[in-house]
User: What shape does this take?
Amino acid sequence: MESHMTRFALLLCITVAASASSQTCVPTEVNDNPWVYVKEMLIGCWTNFITEDKAEVHILNLNFASKDSSMFQLEMANAKPMNLILTSLDTAYCLYNINADVNIYVNINSTLALYSNQNHNEFHREDFPTQNEEALVAWAKKRFGGVTSFTTIQNLKNLTATATKGTKPDSPDCVLKNEDASEKHFLKINAESSDSSLKSCSPQPQSPTEAELHIINIPEDTNIRSNVSLRIDAKKTKVFLRGPQGTTWILLNPQHAQFGSNNEVLLPNIPHTVRPLITLNRDGAEDVQRKALDHFKVSTFTSYTELRPEDSSVLLVLGRNDNAPVTETVPTVTAVTTNAPAQMPLTMQLYTSPDYRSPLDPNTKVQSDRRIYAEISGHTFGDIVLTIKVIRCFVRSKGSCPVIKELPFIPETCSLNSCPTSTRLSFSLDQLQELESTTWDLECSVKLCHSEKCGDGGRVKRNLEVTQPCLQPPTPPCFDFGLPGVLGIAFGGFLIGVLLIGALWFIKIKTGYPTGLDISSTAANLPGCPCSGAKRQPVSTNPSPSENSSANASIGSTQSTPTSSMA
Assistant: This one.
């Protein structure tokens, strides 16, 4: 009996641990989902057009679902010079505040009622099409020469024009298509959200170090098969997307996310379509949640959202949708990344050797006569791997007069096992030796490729400190004297000594120098050199003590009679 109780307790612990390690939640109806909110993808465009008098041309196509939503406000006191065309098939009331550079155009039969607390002469009524968007664009092109933007807004409450330009580079023609109006930085739009049915839930909070996992489910009985656009505002995110057969998910900015889906996923910036990665016929909340946990090999998720869109094209925005500030820890990185908003984030790391084992610190200075090695890395989109192709690299000096120089590079080999999501290359900094600047930005343009299809990957950038190599003075040669050298020097010294002694003897013989080579005290008083060969003169007649005695006596007698001698 005790053995059975032990087994039962063990089985209970295992069951509790399994349930704790694989959490699920039951979704409920919500008015405001804290993680995912729905926006409609409405028709519009955005170009670089501007009139000859430097005015922009903007069209606002306003739709209102009910009379309760048919009042809105326009705030354009700080707007750039523009011609604003307002059109709506619904009756609506507008309170506007504009400056003298804004001209408003409304159809002569429009039921839009505009009110202002100022007297303006910039309000005009003209006959232009209202039933067809393309016809309205054609009329505006004929009337003003072009269209800067066309924006469709559902249930507008407030619109503010910023003081920035509303033009978009490299877009000369206004081609109407479904768009996300929030990308237009020159307009701040506040509108009522869509009436799409929404259910949501979230299990227990997960560790902040784990990547967030968000699950979005569109049930099978949804009447409209949708093209669902998803914009991911949250970073370090995983998303699991489940929809009816025929649904296409369009990831607008998947640079911070990994994804999995039972439907096709379109990456419009490459462009590339990812086939379904998962087979999932059931659409129940618990089934979808467990499938997501199993696919990403995690024990919990951040949010589950279930929706039934009413339109064929909707936009979902993934990110916190509440007023509470979200504290986000940004990791420190050594490389600087520069990318287009909807592209894969790239990082560049520099190395000092071709084995790529010695990362170069950003604050370390590199001598211009050295070669540096770089590795550009990215991330995967879902289960697909995008290869990185470097197109061009250049350096830009920092300062008041920047200098830009293209930097040739050599691709370095790297196996797929070592570099599944990166590419390697090397640079020579020789051409920077003659330049005064030492602080540079190293920048490379890349393309992202998959299955021989390539799209713009943006640019990756990082700083680079360069110094000139130190010029060392030439080192004097060092002589190593071995035993043969020492013997040679000794013999040479001996030979030189013999020759010098021989020369001295030769000089002695020729000059007649005394044998003993001693110089008398009287010779020291002679002018000139004692070895000149001149005949020496006697100095004294005094005989030496060795002379005969007769001489001594004679001398003595002479000295004894000085008086007689003088006489």
Notes: The first strand starts at residue 28 and ends at 29. The helical segments are 2-21, 133-144, 285-296, 483-511, 549-560, 562-566. The chain is about 15% helix and 35% strand. The two ends are 176 Å apart (CA to CA).
